[in-house]
Design brief:
The protein has seven helices and two strands; from the N terminus they run αααααββαα. By secondary structure, the chain is mostly helical. It has a domain of 101 residues. The longest helix is centred in the middle third of the chain and has 44 residues.
Length: 182
């Protein structure tokens, strides 16, 4: 029971400290789950995010559900998901009421601009953290993973295909590279 309560409180804390949506919350989740709680290794966390990307639904809720399941089975999944949802629902209700009232307030508008810049920084940190954990494994550069990253980046940036196709391509290339040991 203590673990379930810890899971709920941890995901409430994560959600209260996360701004900007799922991907922007990854550094907060990483810090809490990998570095502070030691509930996962960096490799497990990177694998979790890869699985999260191919699973339908919001990233934060899927992540919470996966972590909860790993720690305490189905009850852990429920505890983590509840902890993840409560703050978002309460904050969203409060924010929507404030948004309509303060839309003409210059301080409020400037605060929103500042928050957008902060979200961009969070996404940059997330990108660097994930790239490092995916390209460098066991303190060595993995050429195959680097090539998958570069190809995926070029495809997404230049040609803008449906991301699902790039995710599937990355999975297939990951399997092939593992077979060839590239």
């Amino acid at each position: 029971m203590k673990l379930l309560l810890d899971i709920v409180i941890t995901f409430i804390k994560i959600q209260l400290l996360s701004f900007g949506g799922g991907h922007a919350s990854i550094p907060v989740v990483h810090t809490e789950i990998v570095e502070i709680k030691h509930w996962m290794t960096m490799k497990e966390f990177s694998d979790l995010l890869a699985m999260d990307e191919i699973t339908p639904g919001p990233l934060a809720i899927n992540c919470a559900t996966f972590v909860g399941k790993k720690l305490a089975g189905v009850l852990g999944s429920i505890a983590a998901t509840v902890g993840c949802i409560i703050p978002s629902c309460v904050i969203a209700l409060i924010f929507m009421k404030m948004y309509k009232q303060y839309l003409q307030n210059k301080i409020f508008v400037n605060e929103l601009r500042g928050l957008r810049c902060m979200v961009i920084a969070l996404l940059a940190v997330t990108t660097i953290t994930l790239a490092t954990g995916s390209i460098y494994i066991d303190n060595s550069l993995k050429l195959g993973n680097t090539l998958i990253f570069a190809l995926s980046f070029i495809l997404l940036y230049k040609f803008k295909p449906n991301p699902l196709y790039v995710i599937l391509l990355g999975g297939v290339l990951g399997i092939l590279i593992n077979i060839v040991k590239f």
